[in-house]
């Protein structure tokens, strides 16, 4: 819990997670959201980056002690897999969202042996679709996917259901509920906004949380 709070405070401090319940963002899907997440900002904030990468390495050691190689999601997970792999002395590679249309047409970059025990490194999980495609590509290549480590997860039911159906475990450094609570405790949002944020998370298509009616 101490690590989770520390990462939450760090992400809020650099605006990697940005709450705006009064003026919702509109996602590409059309869903209105009170939160925007850009974990790419971690890479340009060395102090926060140190905490996050050490946290990823610590989580992998604790949750997946048999890990032999890290695979980052393209593109956001690549740098985090590389840094954590360096800290752990483990090889890393990454998985494209689709195979290249030239050269060797690789979808998986880096040397991966059949039967190798892999942990996937992802920056953000919402509905889980893209990271599950990565897991499936690795499985098709003969890897044993131990699970996923992500920096932040919304904990949306659709994502939880998809992960369960794919029979893959995910461990996040920070969960949405903790992020909202820390944001309220640090004065980033109002305490009454926490319930609205949780209402959004529980049912993103229901916009009744806007305006504080929930």
Descriptive terms for the model:
about 210 residues; single chain; 6-stranded mixed β-sheet; alpha/beta
Largest sheet strand order: 7-6-5-8-9-10
Query: Structural class of the secondary elements?
Result: alpha/beta
- Give the uncertain stretches in residue-range form: none
Helical content class: 25-40%
What string gives the helices and strands in order? Answer: HEEEEHEHEEEHEHEHH
Anisotropy-based shape: globular
State the total count of DSSP E strands: 10
Backbone CA Rg: 17 Å
What is the terminal-to-terminal distance?
Answer: 28 Å
Question: What assembly state would you assign to the polypeptide chains in this entry?
Answer: single chain
Q: Report the biggest beta sheet as strand number plus sense, adding barrel if it closes.
A: 6 strands, mixed
Count of DSSP H/I helices: 7
- Tell me the strand percentage band: 15-25%
Q: Overall mean pLDDT score?
A: 92
Question: Could you walk me through the main structural features you see in this protein, from its secondary elements to its overall organization?
Answer:
There is one protein chain. The protein has 214 residues and is of the alpha/beta class. The chain is built from 7 helices and 10 strands. It has helices at residues 2-13, 46-63, 78-88, 129-140, 157-165, 176-185, 193-202; strands spanning 17-19, 25-26, 32-33, 35-37, 69-73, 92-95, 108-109, 117-125, 144-153, 170-175. The strands form 3 sheets. A 6-stranded mixed β-sheet has the order 7-6-5-8-9-10, with helices on both faces. Strands 1-4 form a two-stranded antiparallel ribbon. The chain has a two-stranded antiparallel ribbon with strand order 2-3. Helix 5 (157-165) links the parallel strand 9 (144-153) and strand 10 (170-175). Helix 2 crosses helix 3 and helix 6 (176-185) runs antiparallel to helix 7.
């Amino acid at each position: 819990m101490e690590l989770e709070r520390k990462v939450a405070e760090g992400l809020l401090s650099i605006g990697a997670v940005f709450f705006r319940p009064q003026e919702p963002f509109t996602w590409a899907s059309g869903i209105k959201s009170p939160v925007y997440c850009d974990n790419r900002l971690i890479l340009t904030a060395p102090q926060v980056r140190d905490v996050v990468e050490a946290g990823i390495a610590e989580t992998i050691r604790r949750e997946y002690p048999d890990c032999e190689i890290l695979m980052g999601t393209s593109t956001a997970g690549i740098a985090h897999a590389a840094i954590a792999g360096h800290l752990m002395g483990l090889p890393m590679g990454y998985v494209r969202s689709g195979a290249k249309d030239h050269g060797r047409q690789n979808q998986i970059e880096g040397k991966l042996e059949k039967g190798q025990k892999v942990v996937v490194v992802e920056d953000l999980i919402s509905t889980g679709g893209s990271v599950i495609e990565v897991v499936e590509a690795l499985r098709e290549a003969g890897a044993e996917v131990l699970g996923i480590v992500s920096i932040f997860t919304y904990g949306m039911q659709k994502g939880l259901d998809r992960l369960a159906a794919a029979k893959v475990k995910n461990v996040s450094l920070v969960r949405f509920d903790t992020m909202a609570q820390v944001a309220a405790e640090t004065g980033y949002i109002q305490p009454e906004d926490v319930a609205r944020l949780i209402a959004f998370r529980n049912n993103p298509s229901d916009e009744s949380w806007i305006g504080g009616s929930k």
